[in-house]
Design goal:
The complex is a heterotrimer. By secondary structure, chain A is α+β, with helices and mostly antiparallel strands. Chain A contains 16 helices and 17 strands. In chain A, the strands form four sheets. Chain A has a nine-stranded mixed sheet. A three-stranded antiparallel sheet of chain A has the order 6-5-16, with no helix packed on it. Chain A starts with a strand and ends with a helix. The longest helix of chain B has 22 residues. The mean pLDDT of chain B is 95. Chains in contact: A-B, A-C, B-C. The interface between A and B is large, with 49 and 34 residues.
Amino acid sequence: MRYEAVIGLETHVELATNSKIFCSCGGHSTKGEPNTRVCPACAGMPGMLPVTNRRVVELAMRAGILLHCDISRYTTFDKKSYYYPDLPCAYQITQWFHPVCRNGSVEVTTKDGTRTIGIKQIHMEEDAGKLVHDDWTETTLVDFNRTSVPLIEIVSKPDFRTADEVMAYLEKLKTMFRFANISECEEGAMRCDVNISIRPEGTEELGVRTEIKNMSSLSSIRRAIQYETARHLDAVERGTETLVQETRRWDDVKGRTFSMRNKETAADYRYFPDPNLMPILIGEDWIRRVRDTMPASIEEKTAEYQSKGLSEKEIASLTSERALCDLFDAVTAAGRDPKEAASWILTECGGILRKHGQVMGELRVAPEKLSRIMEKVSGNEINRAAGRKVLEAVLYEDADPDAYCKAHNLSAQGDADAVRQVVLKVLDATPNAVKDYLGGKKKAFQALFGGCMKELKGNGDPQVIRTLLEEELSKRS
Amino acid sequence: MMTPEALSALEQLNEMRLTADEAAEMLSIFRDMEAHEAALREIDTDNVEIMVHVMPLTNILRDDVQEQPFTRESLLEGAPEHTDDSWQVPRLVK
Amino acid sequence: MGQFVTEINANGVIAVDDTIQVKGYETRAGSRILEGFKPLFSAETVERLEGAGYAVAGKSAVGEFGLDLLGEFAHGGPCLDASGALRGAAAELVAAGQVRGALNVDLNGAPRRAAALSGVDFLKPTYGTVSRYGVIPCACSGEQVGVTAKTAGAVRELLRVIAGHDPKDGTSLPAETYDYGNGKDVPGMRVGLVRELTDAASDDMKARVTAYAERMRGLGVTVEEVSLPLAEAARTAWNLLLCAETCNNVSRYDGVKFGYRSPDYRNIDELYVNSRTEGLNFLTKAVILYGSDALSKGRYVTCYDKALRVRRLVWEQVKGLFKDFDALLCPACSRTEYRPYAIADAFKTVFEESLFTAIPNLTGVPAMASGGVQCFADTLRESSLLNLAEAMEGSGAK
């Protein structure tokens, strides 16, 4: 008998907001020293009351729109109770009864083809804090920076059959969410609970289901799914063990899952509507406004860039990051040529980042500065090599292009008159080489050219120097 | 019907312990309240919506603005046990 | 009697219940579990009073989290009068003239009861008109900060200062000011005397309410007996909601972040259990356990959800009466005097007594204890309560 795996995913995604979901502390979970983005509410102290961050609702709506969900007209928050030191109030505010989005879908493509994965719901909730286990003091240290950082949880239907599909889905969500500025999806900002069961192919009834909790790296998720599927198969086909419905933990070092037989999994969460948070009504107008102000999708950007004459490869590279598209759009909006802009961003910036051991995703450059450099080069104020040098200074020293050119005497390099002065100076200083050249020793040209380059500290445009040299030499023949 | 076993589980869930006398009194409280709950269930609420909030406010939202008016030192000051930057509890995992 | 648990300013004129935060001063909500807890900010109501020039004299004692009848199980012991009868600490401070007024949290009627017993006034305003920011939370869906003072005029004066929109409280109504009446317009008012609540009171309390009704008539007020058949259901529903919400809100007190930590633990479980077992009294424990059970998987629908539906029915019933009546008159408690009793009996005692006080907490309507009895009014009709009380005080009812 052939078996198939039935896999469902609960994916937690940290939203890209300035502040937390219910208080005004900084919203980015990985920034800052421990407990520096914390207020009395984050520390579980009484007295403060939650007030919902509008941006969180709108980013959740954005995610719902991208995943073809129905956006709820009426959505509310509920409290979920359990004890753990990373949960300062011993309750988490989440959405249990009326989640913000329902009934969506997303297409995932693997080597085996494209399949549609159903989305059961998306809900908003607050994250928990972080625990650091300290060997020196034999204590656990509690950091509430991440407490109340906004999350959306995307609950898929049990529509996955392979780990490849799960990988494709997570990669797609990641790209989509980054591209729509919903989440930065940095390491740890996307976490998954995976539900797995197996059944004979062609049957409907689900087998015993286990849940693997809280994994954040894609490779762990893949290995955990492969391990757990094999464990289920062994149990069903060879009777190696009796499967029970339970929550398990993935151990990345040992490469296997372990049962979590603790009270946390047995807890009754006692959900109830939060009396401090009023219902949120979402009308057509609001949905339209969110849809209209959403950044263009990858598909829309691809079409736009095709019409601007960019190559498939350039388009794929630019649309890999929302920030690259934003940069490209800003530079072209400032009047720079699209092909040139793509080349400067992907080839020049990319090259410099590589040289410094960084990747495109880490590119941070003010569009005005890049645009200014391109303008200088295209206007022959400086040559491309000099432009590259300025760009490096802009990227790593936060230099101002004009000020940098001035300080490093780069503005003259493209100026034919100034170069001509250098050429004349070199010709006057090396009469022997001139004589050799005019006498037919073409090799002497290289010496003269090198002299000019040296005089220009390597920043001369070779073409300009060559032309001027030939011109001046012909005058002396 | 609340049983001594269920009460004991309830104590665990709420991280507390009752004395034997308190547990006996608690079971008696549950018995009393069960009678009142039964009376409540007699009331027909088939076509009645729940009422979580007594005032009809909706869409109470704030702008996404970051503020950090409280210092870490002041938050940690009243902690029973803490380091320079964190709250401290007995080690959770070996 | 009439003592502060924490003194703040010898020249102060306001007592603030220990369930309301004053920045920098220990706030224990009558509990050991909050030992040493010094809030980092003041309640909005305290800020507003101080901003208007009313200095806080000190923190007045409350029972643990304000859950008991009158503060009889306050961490520092009960407040008793000369005869040994139980009194509310803030109400006694007001009655003795030590302060001009007090801020109290009306969670399950304690400040209304206390005012009625000490012969002063307490008004629980309409839900959402006064900020709950800085209140030690228990049952957020129905608790409100109110004012105790000697006269309706003094209540009105303080209420005007503390009421109005607060963006830090997501349940705060948008209005900046409210109509608190002018002490006039009483002749011609219609008051309903609630049969179910009056019948449930002791004879001397019944007599007190009847006499009050008579004096009202003397002011040109029409008083008629009315029926509120859901009064008992309202009590059960409110106590279910109160216990469940309180269970959730006080779960944060665990010995980890602030307040009391048991010295006796070897691991996190013992730290939690011992801190909470030692830090909370039996009444709070009973509230937590009953509330936790009401929210549990098997019971949510028949208990918590049911209470939320009954809340709507009670609200409709009360609203129906306010179509015909400006106010409802009833006792604030069953008896005219209370004596100290064992904490084992606290849950049942408070439940019994909350029959008289639960409806305003459950439905959000305003309620005022004055002249030893209490009145309810329709949402945002505090003016009716204050006008009636002021006229009655002028008529020599006190």
